[in-house]
Design goal:
Elements (H helix, E strand, L loop, with lengths): L1 H18 L16 E8 L8 E8 L3 E3 L5 E3 L1 E11 L7 E5 L7 E2 L3 E3 L2 E3 L1 E7 L2 E7 L2 E7 L2 E9 L5 E9 L3 E3 L2
Parallel strand pairs: 1-15, 6-7
Antiparallel strand pairs: 1-2, 2-5, 3-4, 5-7, 5-10, 6-12, 8-9, 10-11, 12-13, 13-14
Length: 176
């Protein structure tokens, strides 16, 4: 009888533990590598900032940029809208998120009235934005035509999450 009772308790424990949701994250499917990366140079566009500004825009497989600069397809778009560089191009080195507006930094993500700015990730399905994840902080390294990102954000349940991804290849320049 004790063996049956013990077996029943073990089975019930296993059954209930498997019903618990796994670590909550709506971004489980985010890619580890991106297929395409664009860089848009804005130059010295802020009077109060000595650094030049550019945008990095990365697309996963399944997404493409249209001639009208719209996003088409299904996948993920990682965007860093304000990367501060010493001159006019992305230079090799480590870039960290901060609000200091110094070279070799990028602005952390913020949401203003539902629109993302700074660093953020779009989940796009059939040409429509399904969800937006604002990136709280992070860093990226640019070396030998490769980008390696370590980004931090809060998931849908408010828990801290880390996202690492990369891109290898030349950056495609875009005009403003």
């Amino acid at each position: 009888m004790k063996k049956i009772l013990f077996s029943l308790i073990v089975l019930l424990t296993l059954a209930f533990s498997s019903c618990r949701p796994s670590s909550p994250s709506v971004y489980r499917g985010m890619p580890k590598t991106y297929a395409t990366a664009y860089a848009t140079m804005y130059g010295h566009c802020y009077d109060s900032i000595a650094a030049a500004v550019l945008t990095l825009d990365l697309y996963s497989d399944g997404l493409e940029l249209t001639k009208e600069k719209g996003i088409q397809g299904t996948g993920y778009n990682l965007c860093l809208s304000d990367v501060l560089v010493p001159d006019s191009l992305l230079e090799e080195g480590e870039y960290r998120s901060t609000d200091t507006a110094e070279p070799f930094t990028f602005l952390p993500g913020r949401s203003y009235e539902g629109y993302p700015h700074g660093a953020y990730i779009l989940n796009i399905e059939e040409n429509k934005v399904k969800s937006i994840q604002v990136v709280d902080s992070g860093l990226f390294v640019y070396r030998n035509d490769s980008l390696l990102f370590t980004l931090y954000y809060r998931n849908a349940y408010g828990s801290k999450a880390t996202y690492t991804c990369s891109y290898a290849g030349a950056l495609i320049p875009l005009s403003k």
